[in-house]
Amino acid sequence: MTAYRTMIDGQGSGGVRFEVYQFVRQSHVLASPATTSATASAGATTPSIHLHPPHPTTARQVRIVLEGGAALLEPGALQYAHGKLQVDVQKNAGAGGFFSRAMTSAGSGESAFATRYAGHGEVWTDVTTKHFILAAMDGPQDSLILDDGAFYACDANVAVSTHVHRSVQGMLSGNGLMQPKLTGAGAFVVESPVPVDEIEVIELDGQKELIVDGDLMLMFSAGLQVELRPLVRGLRNAMRTGEGLVYVFNGRGTVWLTPTKRLG
């Protein structure tokens, strides 16, 4: 394996292992042209070239190691794969627009597809400056709802379906109407705009309500009662708040937020 990559996280289940690798691209400075004998004898000065190298870019990619298991990957995310692999396209019945690379519009109600890799070998995904969160679900009833566009990969034993927000406000918005839902037992990968140490985890005990700006949502427990609506009732009042749609949560479960997302 190439030395410039360093593994920073790993999560496995059932013959499948997901690994996140990170590397920093180095900056290079072009040296000034050398002074020639001709210019030196003529007393001429060599023009200086002042280059300001860009800040180093930290990049990441996912490696999927298959040892008899199978994994689902976001369409278009493959960089290269090798081994004895069977590659198929899996249709996720009733899926919305959460496979962003395969669909033209989110929440369209069209069927979406994932690429299924099975067998023995490894799959490397495209390099990105975004972050990856690795996690695992424990049992058949364990279920999470992800932000539209957050799904990246999962153990093929995890069922990928669609959660539909049926509130009138959600339908009118076209934003967040349909979101990916993961159910079952196995490892999965979420693409995040912020690193894992900047994700805020909020546990709800059924006694208090949680209101969240929709842009900061990463994922939440599917057992929570959730409503997508304006912050306050009434069109005029909603416009005065300056807020878009918010998530309103009640019940027992966990919510994962990205409070530093807008900082870039």
Kindly estimate the percentage of residues that lie in beta strands according to DSSP. over 45%
Mean pLDDT: 79
Helical coverage, percent range: under 10%
The string of secondary-structure elements, in order, is: EEHEEEEEEHEEEEEHEE
Q: Quick one: how many beta strands?
A: 15
The span between the termini is: 31 Å
Q: Note the main sheet.
A: 12 strands, antiparallel
Shape estimate: globular
Secondary-structure-based class equals mainly beta
Rounded to the nearest angstrom, the radius of gyration is 23 Å
Tally of helical runs: 3
Low-confidence stretches: 95-111, 168-176
How would you characterize the overall build of this protein?
This protein has 264 residues and is mainly beta. It has helices spanning 37-41, 168-173, 235-241, and strands spanning 6-13, 16-25, 57-73, 78-92, 112-125, 131-146, 151-155, 159-164, 178-192, 200-205, 210-213, 217-221, 225-230, 245-250, 252-257. The strands form 2 sheets. Strands 1, 2, 3, 4, 5, 6, 7, 8, 9, 10, 12 and 15 form a 12-stranded antiparallel β-sheet that branches.
